[in-house]
Amino acid sequence: MKTITSIESNENFSNNVQAWQLKNMIGETVTIHGNVYKIRKMHGFAFVLLRSGGEILQCVYEETRTDFPLEKLTEECCIKAAVFVKEEPRSRRGFDLQLLHVQILSLPARHSPVVINQKTVNASLETLLNYRPITLRNQREAAIFKIQEALADGIRRFLKEQHFTEIHTPKIVSEGAEGGTNIFHLKYFEQDAFLAQSPQFYKQMMVGVFERVFEIGPVFRAEKHDTSRHLNEYTSVDFEMGFIEDFQELMAMETGMLRSAMASVKEQCPEEAALLGVRIPEITEIPCLRFQEAKELLQKEGCSQNNPMDLDPEEEKKLCRLIREKTGSEFVFVTHYPSAKRPFYAMNDPQNPEETLSFDLLFRGMEVTTGGQRIHSYETQVEKMRQKGLNPEDFSSYLMIHQCGMPPHGGLGLGLERLTSRLLEQDNVRRACLFPRDIHRLTP
Predict the structure, then answer these.
(1) For binding ATP, which residues are annotated in this chain's numbering (predicted)?
(2) What is the C-alpha to C-alpha distance for residues 171 and 200, in angstroms, rounded to an integer?
(3) Burial 15-35, CB ≥16 within 10 A → b, else e
(4) Is 416 annotated as a binding residue?
(5) pLDDT band for position 13 (50/70/90)?
């Protein structure tokens, strides 16, 4: 018995096969690669579970058919293996992989600090995140981000079909898009600069070029929150549309976008969705009510009105529960937020200037989207800036588009981690972020 140490010197290794190709190669001998996930010793043989390309493959070790001792393999060692793909109806995949020859590419220098080869990682959230490069190797933890990928893919495909152009905007900027103090300062050579709170100004600028644009990228908020719903860096799905008649066109577009995202999860991630027990919502029409109507409904239900300008987290949860009971929908649009709450670029309602033509989308108890119609008139924009105590001269590059003519337009921003977290019904949005950044965490 010996361990193969050089692929080049052994004719038993063929070209590498990816995990997804194996179902079409029953009866063939092929080469696969991966990390040993788990070894299950049975009577007279062993199952060697191999993590390959994010999938778990079941290999069968039998001493009489394999030219190396099982003791050579350890959990998390990296290998290449020549295997015979054997039909096996009892296997979930319909086949087993009979181990023939192995090349050990690397051996771990230490035992894993966390047990990752069980159904779940039995550890606190803090431990889960401290050892994130390792805990993400767990099948359930990895499944979260395959689902997140499918959501983003469904969003991107839908927007492309609707003739949106994908753009990539700067993340180092000269002024904040959202105002306030929740902005990260940095030194940019000899100038002061900031990390972008959103691509707001740039996507509005690009409406003047392509009419419909979108971006999926990072944004940064210097909010000193330590809650289950906040991140200081998150992935924002932004789109902006020109020549709109009404801000409800934006809500209709988002409804279609979310249908596509959920369909993408169903299509691309059936195994991951089953593993995590995901309830994928059926989206037909999303109910809609005005902000003041929502407040009145909540007041009737006994909710204290602590913030007259916004919905607090408990109000969001209660409102979603009420809407679901009344309509069956797990989504709800809330429109016409107070002007005092919305940014300077939000268009006021001509019928009531105290309200804006804006909305939030709530999903399973949490706000996941903010959007609305923007001001396109130069004079109106300058006036609102001054009303909010801002100096228009500080926004000269942004106001250039208004000076040179802009169509009626609007858009939205959706938090991808929040959408993922609410879809998976997690207790903390950090679970839906690969490497979270919050007020305590800058590594890994």
Answers:
(1) 221-223, 229-231, 367, 415-418
(2) 11
(3) eebebeebeeeeeeebbbbbb
(4) yes
(5) low
Mean pLDDT of 135-161: 97
354 is in an annotated binding site: no
Q: Which residues pair with 352 in a beta bridge?
A: 349
Q: Does residue 221 have a known ligand-binding role?
A: yes
Residue 415 marked ligand-binding = yes
Q: Is 430 annotated as ligand-binding?
A: no
444/429 Cα distance (integer angstroms): 17
Q: Radius of gyration of the chain from Cα atoms?
A: 27
Phi, psi of 388 (to 5 degrees): -90, 10
Inform me whether the pLDDT recorded for 372 exceeds 60: yes
Strands, E, within 378-425: which ranges? Answer: 409-415
Contact (Cβ atoms closer than 8 angstroms) between residue 316 and residue 310: no
- For the record, the structure tokens of 3 come out as 């361990």
The pTM score is 0.93
How many Å apart are CA 311 and CA 366, to the nearest integer?
10
Q: How many CB atoms lie within 10 A of CB 133?
A: 9
**Six-digit token string for 118:** 């069980």
Count the helices and strands in the chain (H runs, E runs): 11, 18
**Beta-strand pair 165-166/185-188:** unpaired
